[in-house]
Write a structure and sequence with these properties.
alpha/beta; seven-stranded mixed beta sheet; five-stranded antiparallel beta sheet; 28 helices; 34 strands; 24% strand; elongated
């Protein structure tokens, strides 16, 4: 029994020992577990915890034994635990619960709880630390969310997105990639972007950079050209970034590509424009610059380098003043200051650059301000520089040449003045003496010789005037003086001057003045007459037999303006065709040979051309050798609407005059008809006076043009038995005397050239025979048929001082003045004149210019300094342009050129001297004033 008991005790101890050993083994095993193992009662109060609690949560057994597990949980997790224990009690042992357990520091960590019921109604449980899992889960969720957003963005961005593996093989591309490259995503997966998209224009440097970055797992940014599926180029900016795992190993590459094709094309276009601009600018021979507001160089073209032989880069930023001569730099600074103060105009000026060799070079600089696109602010200044050194040198040469030319021209003018003086001075005496001698009761033979003297002198004077006139034109000194005048009278004056030569040569001269041509016009009377004289003189000179026809008609009307066409046609020797083009050049004649028969200066036509050009007209010639020539002048004139010229006129009040014309000369007939039409006189033309129709109404006048018709007309008039017998007018174109003669009662003979003025003259002379017409004359001038001069002296009682050093001219001028009734005093020079005017009262002074001791201009100035206002007329043989102005400026009142022409002298006397009646009236007024003072 005792042995059994002892055996049982031994077995029992053995069992206990074994159990203790098992317990110790379990305790060691539990201590080795990484999980927190615990036991608790049914109320969840801890009865056991293993050592993992201390390592995981910082709790020891004494700290937790007896406490409930819910004390370590949030209320929410405590409720979850309560529900969980119920499920365990219900036998659902496969479930677990995730809870946040607060550690000893109060920080919550995630654990997975598992419970099982023990045999004592309590629970055995374990807590598995899942904090790291939760962290990874959270990161995974964040990454998934990020990836989702990234995928959304990548799918909807305009940028191209490419995702590759660590080796650069495509894993995914977005829609923008598909749109731009025309590749589908499934087509490109597994392919290398470089091999797929790169092409011939992709630079080797770009390829190597991308390949190296992928190999080394490094990010890269680059701009490169790619090609789409159809080999079309496009440019992208690539921003590639590697994606690494937790071990810092590259798992992927994400490349964001921006399509920069438009920008690159724009840049390329701009680069091309810039290149073309620089190519153009650098090939411009002129210097082109860009300056800042202070004048510092920002840009210069290649011409700058060529000009200064310097490196452009070294000059950038330097002030432009550094390259300009100091004296000229202020011009640039002044312009820059104006630009800074708001001026925005283009400035151009000449300055001198200083080259590196120290040589000065003239340039023309143009500055143009460049304004901001948005406002008027100054951004920079464009400058162009033109080398004008050659031009400046040439200008200086031209200035020197101009000075020499002016000196020569002045010498030429003085020479011409001296020549004029030397020729005109004796010529004045010759012509004046011939005129005076002609009217001293000479015999016919003596008058013929004096007429030869006058004709030769006039020819010499004409040549001299041609030379002097052309010198004025050559110096551009011609001027057109438009004044009212009578056109028909002007042209008749020219005819009268040359008519004697024509009559002596037996030439018929007919002036046809068309009725539509205005008689009263505004123009240059002297110039038009000069043209007519030159053309008529040439026609007479080169015509031996035949006729000269002068026609004046209108070719164009514009309100009060019209163009006069003056044509002069002759039957002379004509002009060869090869000479026509040069006829209006100076010193040119149709016959320049040493055997030529016709004299002259060769300036007449050149002068006509110069006058026409100055007036805005034209002159032309047509000719046939040995048949004649026709010169046509087109000259602009205006109609005189001011009635400033009172013309002689007439009108018949009783009845309209009727005229018969008997002539077989069609040209003369036309001129007569135009004359009658202008005066509203009816006419009828007949070719034969013997073939008159019966019962025809008798005319008031009969005009015949040849001697045969004259005899028949005289016979007709003798048989005419009526109170109002017709007058007979015989026009003899070859009559030697140009005076109208009345050989018998009722008959008038008009000799010489036919002119429109024949009609008024004839009616005036035949006034008595035409009394039945009751003709009224308007503004009729007193004319003497026999041409004798009036005996009255309109300037009798006036005192004239003639200051002249030439004895012959003294005689001539004195005689001409005394014929007009003047009392003449002679002074041999300006000094004598100065002494005489201080002690004698004179009414007019004629002052020669070139005199010894004291010249005329100096004498005039001294007389004016004495406050003497007596009119002074320059009397000079100089006829150079500008002299008249010089004389007026010196204090003279008028100008008379030698040789002295009687009518010009009388016109000046009429202008500056009181006439006899006015003089008497003036003396009476003076006596009345003196008598008033004496009272």
């Amino acid at each position: 029994m005792e042995e059994k008991d002892e055996l049982q005790v031994q077995v029992h101890y053995a069992l206990i020992e074994q159990l203790s050993a098992n317990t110790r083994r379990q305790s060691k095993l539990l201590a080795l577990l990484d999980e927190c193992v615990f036991e608790c009662d049914k109320n969840l109060a801890f009865s056991y915890i293993n050592e993992a609690w201390q390592s995981k949560l910082g709790f020891t057994s004494p700290m937790l034994i007896g406490k409930k597990i819910t004390s370590l949980l949030t209320k929410q997790d405590a409720l979850k635990l309560s529900a969980y224990t119920c499920s365990v009690l219900d036998g659902e042992s496969n479930t677990s619960l995730e809870l946040k357990i607060n550690n000893s520091d109060g920080l919550a960590n995630w654990f997975e709880l598992r419970l099982a019921c023990d045999d004592n109604g309590g629970f055995i449980g374990s807590l598995h630390d899942i904090q790291r899992h939760k962290d990874f889960q959270y990161l995974l969720t964040q990454q998934q969310e990020y990836a989702k957003r990234l995928s959304l963005v990548a799918s909807h961005t305009n940028n191209l997105v490419i995702i590759t593996d660590q080796f650069g093989k495509i894993e995914w591309v977005n829609k923008s990639f598909e749109t731009l490259t025309s590749y589908k995503c499934e087509e490109v997966i597994g392919l290398s972007p470089g091999k797929l998209l790169q092409g011939p224009k992709t630079s080797l440097e770009s390829r190597q950079l991308m390949a190296k970055a992928v190999k080394n797992g490094q990010p890269f940014q680059i701009e490169t050209v790619n090609y789409d599926k159809y080999n079309n180029e496009y440019w992208v900016a690539i921003d590639a970034t590697p994606v690494k795992d937790e071990n810092d190993k590259v798992r992927h590459f994400i490349a964001i590509e921006t399509n920069i094709t438009q920008r690159v094309k724009a840049e390329q276009a701009m680069a091309e424009i810039e290149y073309n601009y620089h190519s153009v600018v650098d090939n411009i021979p002129e210097i082109v610059l860009r300056l800042d507001e202070q004048g510092k160089l920002l840009f210069m073209n290649k011409a700058w380098q060529d000009f200064f032989q310097t490196d452009i880069a070294k000059n950038i930023g330097l002030p432009i003043d550094d390259f300009i001569v100091t004296e000229d730099a202020q011009q640039v600074r002044d312009v820059l200051n104006r630009y800074q103060n708001g001026h925005r105009g283009i400035e151009r000026f000449d300055v001198r650059f200083t080259k590196t060799t120290g040589e000065e070079n003239w340039v023309e600089m143009t500055l143009t301000p460049i304004k901001s696109y948005n406002d008027d602010s100054l951004t920079s200044i464009a400058a162009t520089v033109v080398d004008i050194q050659e031009r400046v040198v040439a200008e200086q040469i031209l200035l020197d040449a101009k000075h020499q030319a002016e000196t020569l021209a002045e010498s030429k003018s003085r020479f011409m003045a001296n020549i004029s003086h030397e020729i005109r001075t004796p010529l004045n005496a010759v012509i004046g003496c011939a005129d005076i001698l002609h009217d001293t009761g000479l015999t016919t033979e003596q008058k013929r010789y004096t007429q030869m003297i006058k004709t030769s002198s006039d020819a010499l004077l004409s040549i001299l005037d041609d030379v002097l006139t052309y010198s004025r034109f050559e110096a551009q000194a011609i001027s057109i003086d438009n004044q009212p005048f009578s056109l028909d009278t002007c042209l008749e004056e020219a005819i009268d001057i040359v008519s004697e030569s024509a009559v002596q040569k037996g030439l018929e001269l007919i002036f046809d003045f068309y009725p539509d041509v205005p008689a009263q016009v505004v123009g240059d009377h002297v110039r038009i007459r000069q043209i007519a004289i030159n053309l008529l003189s040439n026609a007479i000179k080169f015509t031996q037999t035949g006729s000269l026809i002068i026609k004046a008609k209108c070719i164009e009307f514009d309100n009060n303006n019209f163009t006069l066409q003056l044509s002069i046609k002759d039957t002379g020797i004509g002009i060869a065709k090869n000479k026509l083009d040069s006829m209006f050049k100076p010193f040119i004649q149709s016959d320049n040979s040493i055997t030529r028969e016709h004299g002259g200066s060769g300036l007449g036509l050149a002068i006509c051309k110069q006058i026409c050009d100055a007036a805005g007209g034209s002159i032309s010639v047509s000719s046939e050798l040995n048949k004649g020539s026709e010169f046509i002048v087109n000259y602009p004139l205006s109609i005189d609407t001011t009635d400033s010229v009172q013309r002689e006129g007439f009108s018949a009040r009783s009845k309209k005059p009727q005229v018969w014309i008997f002539s077989g000369y069609s040209i003369l007939n036309q001129a007569i008809e135009h004359m009658l039409t202008r005066h509203s006189i009816a006419f009828t033309g007949f070719s034969d006076i013997n073939a008159l129709p019966k019962n025809i109404i008798t005319p008031d006048a009969i005009v015949v043009t040849n001697k045969d018709d004259l005899l028949a007309a005289e016979h007709f008039l003798k048989s005419y038995d009526c109170l109002n017998k017709p007058c007979l007018l015989f026009i003899d174109l070859l009559g030697k005397t140009q005076k109208a003669a009345a050989p018998s009662d009722g008959m008038l003979r008009v000799n010489g050239p036919f002119k429109p003025s024949h009609l008024p003259r004839a009616i005036s002379i035949l006034d008595e025979q035409l009394f039945h017409l009751d003709i009224i004359f308007t503004n009729k001038k007193d004319t003497a048929i026999n041409g004798q001069k009036k005996a009255n002296q309109p300037f009798k009682g006036t005192y004239v001082l003639v200051v002249e050093d030439n004895k012959n001219n003294q005689i001539v001028v004195k005689q001409l003045l005394e014929q007009q009734g003047c009392s003449v005093e002679i002074a041999n020079n300006g000094q004598e004149a100065l002494e005489k005017v201080q002690y004698q009262t004179v009414d007019l002074i004629f002052m020669d210019i070139q005199m010894p001791i004291l010249d005329g201009i100096s004498a005039t100035k001294k007389i004016r300094e004495l406050s003497i206002v007596t009119p002074i007329i320059a009397l000079t043989a100089n006829a150079i342009h500008g002299d008249k102005e010089r004389f007026i400026e010196a204090g003279m009142n008028d100008y008379l050129a030698k040789p002295i022409i009687g009518n010009k002298l009388n016109a000046l006397l009429d202008k500056h001297l009181p006439k006899l009646s006015n003089l008497k009236h003036t003396k009476l007024e003076r006596m009345s004033e003196i008598w008033t003072l004496l009272k």
